[in-house]
Amino acid sequence: MSAMRTVVVTGGSRGLGLAMVETLARAGFGVIALARKESAELAALRAAHKDTIHFHAADLSDIAGLAGVAKALRAHGTIWGLVNNAGIGTAGVLSTLPDGKIEELVRLNVTSPITLTKYLVRPMMTQRAGRIVNVSSIVASTGYVGLSAYGATKAALVGFTHSLARELGSLGITVNAVAPGFVATEMTHGLEPAQLEQIARRSALKRMPTAQDVADTVGFLMSDKAANITGTVLTVDAGNTA
């Protein structure tokens, strides 16, 4: 990698996003972590990678403010890659899920990443190079009780990935999605130990994937080795859907 390439990771302060930030920085990328506020873990990571990891505070649910966020990020130079990782995993049976929660899910998990991509892809189009990775979920294709609205938002990102890959392919920009299985992060804290055991037991590898597994997959898609992979969904679930 000649000049350092800069990648934006949304929701980069904890969980999957934090693992992605560290993995990309170690791979030689400049990384800008976007989140509402900086976590202690991200601050420590930034201290250890002063020249490569940056933090930018942003409320990604404020759709009208995303153009300004994209403009502010230009201070770090040309954006080469974007990982749309930020999202919420609100669970609830649809018939009792408040309307406001449904709207919030769609706003943060669908409207926000599509809109942010709209603004950040423009410099990639000018450079005729770049990478976009959208973080979906196996729930988008398998379904799960209590996650119908969430699953719909993650399925939307898969459809977005396929069509955007077609739109941008002639400009040398790849667009892919990663579909993690149930990973031990804050999003799975609501599941009972028995449920987690069952998930692991029914997986081909008899375990659950880790945040690092997902981060490594994102790292691969950002690497030169993935130059001819676009419009696809990579599942990282220890064989849960095999």
Main attributes of the structure:
242 residues, alpha/beta, Rossmann fold, 7-stranded parallel sheet, 43% helix, globular
Structure commentary:
With 242 residues, this protein is an alpha/beta fold. The chain has one domain: NAD(P)-binding Rossmann-like Domain (Rossmann fold), CATH 3.40.50. The protein is 43% helix and 17% strand. The chain has 8 helices and 7 strands. The protein has helices at 15-26, 40-48, 66-73, 99-127, 139-142, 148-168, 193-201, 211-222, and strands at 6-10, 30-35, 53-57, 79-84, 130-135, 173-180, 233-236. It has a 7-stranded parallel sheet with strand order 3-2-1-4-5-6-7, sandwiched between helices.
Gist of the model:
The protein is α/β, with parallel strands linked by helices and 242 residues long. It has 8 helices and 7 strands, in the order βαβαβαβαβααβααβ.
